[in-house]
């Protein structure tokens, strides 16, 4: 019985890995020229669906995504290069239409914040580990030492001189 489940699990995994990705492109949208269709698919994969926002227009079934797919195919059929198609769509819909924003002064923060955050986090971890190592070398953490009043209060609590439920 366990062998049968294992075989079924492996078979299911192989089928999932081998399955082709599902695209929302309808048969009536596909171009007759396979080279132009491949270009259209590549471009559609780089464009954001303005309705879904986290999907490419190639994956989205929204009516606006269909309109954008058709627009890409029209521009390719008219003889535009990939750059011209992208520039046309950016001029019409803004930089937000691109899934991967271009590197320019307007998007500088988008590109710089992730590496800076990663560097800052690494620096903070390094600094914390250095502080702990230095505190361990010095014989303990001196920031956690109790004052004389705190020690006497602790002593009274431990000796049950102060009831635990009574506010102090």
- Average pLDDT, rounded to a whole number, is 81
Largest beta-sheet characterization: none
Element-level helix/strand string: HHHHHH
Structural class: mainly alpha
**Poorly predicted spans:** none
Spatial separation of the terminal alpha carbons: 65 Å
How many whole angstroms does the radius of gyration measure?
31 Å
Number of helices: 6
The amount of helix comes to: 55-70%
Envelope shape: elongated
Task: Please sum up the structure shown.
The protein is an all-alpha fold.
Please give a handful of descriptors for the protein shown.
168 residues; mainly alpha; elongated
How does this structure look, described?
The chain contains 6 helices and no strands. The chain has helices at residues 2-18, 34-45, 63-77, 82-93, 108-137, 148-158. It is elongated and about 90 Å long. Helix 2 (34-45) packs across helix 3.
Write the layout of secondary structure elements.
Blueprint: H1 2-18, H2 34-45, H3 63-77, H4 82-93, H5 108-137, H6 148-158
